[in-house]
Every structure is written in structure tokens, then in C-alpha cells.
Design goal:
Layout: H1 12-20, H2 26-43, E1 47-50, H3 52-72, H4 75-81, E2 91-92, H5 119-126, E3 133-135, H6 169-176, E4 182-187, H7 193-199, E5 202-205, E6 225-230, H8 233-243, H9 261-264, E7 273-276, H10 289-304, E8 308-311, H11 318-321, H12 325-333, H13 339-342, H14 347-356, H15 361-382, E9 387-391, H16 400-403, H17 408-418, H18 423-428, E10 432-442, E11 445-455, H19 461-474
Parallel strand pairs: 2-3, 7-8, 7-9
Antiparallel strand pairs: 1-3, 4-6, 5-6, 5-10, 9-11, 10-11
Amino acid sequence: MTAANGEEVLGALETAAAIRAGEIDMREQTERALDAARGTVARVGAFAHVLEDLSRRQARAAAERLADARRTGDLAGLARDLPLLGVPMPIKDLTQIAGEPFEAGSTALRGTIAPVTDGVAQRVMDAGTVTIGKTTTPEFGMPAYTEPATGAPARTPWDLRRTAGGSSGGAAAAVAAGVVPLAHGSDGGGSVRIPAACCGIVGIKPSRGLVSPGPYGAEGVGLVTDGVLARTVRDLAAGLDTIAGDRPGDSTPLARRERPYLDAVGEQAGPLRIAVLTEPLAAETDVHPAALRGLERATELLRGLGHETTSIPAPFTASEWAAFMPLWTVGAAAIELDAVQEGKLLELTRWLRERGRTYSGIDVVRAISAMQTLSRRTGETFASYDVVLTPTLAGPPAFPDELQLPDGAADFQAQCEFTPWTSTWNMLGRAAMSVPLHREHVDGVELPFGVHLGATRPGDDALLLSLAAQLEAHDPWPLVREPVSP
């Protein structure tokens, strides 16, 4: 694959293949990635913590696995069992790695060292990847921008004045800037797909229950799941294969498909029935013409590929969406902090927690019921279709001061207007992806505009990957963006 500047760029799977072939020394590659990670902190703010010692230990262990496979003549088995061996894949700083920093973008947790390793992080590391570092996240992952209290903000390399999105903004910036080929993220209302759109890469929020939050996390009301960001659909699928899987005690386990998700990239899904939705859902807001042109581009391409597209109206109003607002704020209020930590919080987190404390247990139960009722009605509306197509965002990557506002209520509303579609698929629990199909110049700067693919049935992650691969094959996008300062 080739970057926008014409230089050769290896993806995750290509890197792993080159390592197995002896064309790349993974320890040297790890040092290059560490150097790049340190360099991006000042430019795109991708990393909250660069983990040099851990990464070097992982690279040595991976090199030993490779040497063993060469001695036994089982490189094919190694490629089958550990297809990402030696590949840099960072982990978001909302996820714990025992013995490493865990600050979640908040000064309330500054200096915290994680006592345990979360299950999804363990899966990523067990795959033989090299962590490189913990990627930047906003305070407790709450907003759709990444302006942490603890370090540099995450910026899209397309325009360093603009946000990388959130809350997996550091992960997206690291991938888009070419530091790593793929990254772990998490998504409770769009937190993988929003930064993917802002940074011109692909990102997937898996189906509810496909990726276990165990053994230390909990499903809660089911809005949050771990996901993956990458530059190519093949790498994204390989990342999903790495993190997918249930654990004992999961409340909503979803069996992963028997074949690897990577195989889905080569499958020709279709012809599919695709609903095209342009009306915002979570807020009443204008949609930028370029976002709509991106949607039109995707629609025309899908028709050309033999799929059937149908325009549909919004299945609910912004006021109906707001009926389960207590779930967002009570979740924030439930974070255990002492009085000293409470005094260190940023305005949005403080506002969410204060608002959450005003709701009673009855209010929360009613909000859960409202979400489930709205989800059921939306599911009925979408049932005649295989996929719903929308813009990922209402506009281009935003300037930070358009989203991070001094008043918490205004801040939250601005985020809803910026991201009026993504949270619907957290509510539904269905898989969803952002695909960087479109680009346009805005105020003289070329910027990415993502299109959003939302599944209508549980477990249709492979279907979305197949469809995204079709789009990628027929209308490919730039792979690495050199950071630009207009």
C-alpha cells in the first residue's frame, strides 16, 4: 500500500508477514515505533504514556516465538495462530495494564498504576502485539473530543488545529499519522467511529456481547464496548479477531462467528438492502453539505455494486432520544471518587455527575425502559433493511472550542449536534463502522468525511466488514496523513 505522499506503508498484516519472512526485525521496528510515538506527542497528541520497557519485553518475547517457529518449521502455524505477531497495537488509557499508568485523562487519577490487566488488553497482548503505549483519552472517556486534563490534546493530522475526535482520539491520531497500523479503542456513544471519521481511517464498534468486558469490567446498560481502529478493512478485521470473545459470567454473550472475521473481507455480501438516512437523530442540527456529498458518493457506489438503496425518515426525534439521558449522567456520577479527586474534575465531567445525582432509582429504571422501547421501535423500522447508511458526523473535524465549552450543558449539546447518529447503534447494540470514503477542502484545507455503516441485526459484524471492503476496493482512501499545520 502507498501513502498519500507516495511512500510505501505497511499495514498490520503486511508488517506481520514481513516479520515472519525475516524482512523486518521486530525489535528494530519496535524502537522505530517508540521513537515515532514520542514524536507524535507534540504534534498530534496520540499517546498519554509511551511504554518503552513493556514494549521491549514484548518484542523480545515475540522474537523468541518467531525463532521457535523457524526451528520447528511451523511458520504457517504461527501465521494462523498469531497473525499479528510483532505488530505495534497500542491500548487506550481507559483500559488497565497491570503495573502501567492508568489515568483515564483525568488529574483525579494522576499517578495511578493499574493493579490488574483488563481482559481485552490481555487478549491484545496475548496475540503477540507490541503495545507501544497507552493512547490519549479525554477525562473518563466522556466527550466526543480528546482534550485530556493530564496531557496534550489529540489532533487530526489532516489539520492540527482540529480535534481528532473522542474518546479514542489518541488511538485514531496514532493510526492516521502512521505511528501504528491499528489500535484498540472503546465506544459508548461513537467513541471509536467519531475519531475514525475525524482522522480519515476505519473504526468498528462491534455488536453488543461480542467483546467481553470481563473479568474486571461490567456491561452496565450495554452502551459501551471495546473496538478497533485501523487504516484498512483487512487490518480492522484482524484486530476484531484479536479482541472478540466471551468470558464466564458475561450477561449478554454473543458467539463470535466460526470463521475469522478476516475471511469476511473477501466475501461478497449482497445484494443488500441499504437504508439511507440523512436526518439527524440525537439533535436537531444542520448537516454540512460535504457530509451529505460523502453520503451521496457512498450511495452511488453501492448502487453500482448492485445493492438496493432506499431513503428513509428518522425513526425517532431528538426529544425522544433525550428520554434516556439519565443513563449517561448517572454513569458519570457512579465513578468512585473522593472529595479531593472531585475537586480536580473538568467542567463537563462535573456537570454530568451533578446532573446524574439528581435522578432517582425510579428515574433510572424509566430511562432504561425508554431506551429499550426506543430501541425496539427503531429496530422494527430498520428490520426491512440489512444496513443503514448515514454520515458519521454532521460536519468536518471540529475546532476544539466549538465542542469543549465552559458550560457543561452547552458542551454536551454541542457534542450531540456534532455526532447525531453514532449513539443510536450503542442503544441498539448492533455493529457499526465509520469508513473514510470522502474528502473535501474546507476553508482551504482538505479534510476527511466518514460514512457510517450501521447493522440492523445482532452479530452482523462480518457483513459490515464485507461491505466496507467493497467500498475500499472500488474507492480507496489515503492511508497515512503527514500532520498538517495550515
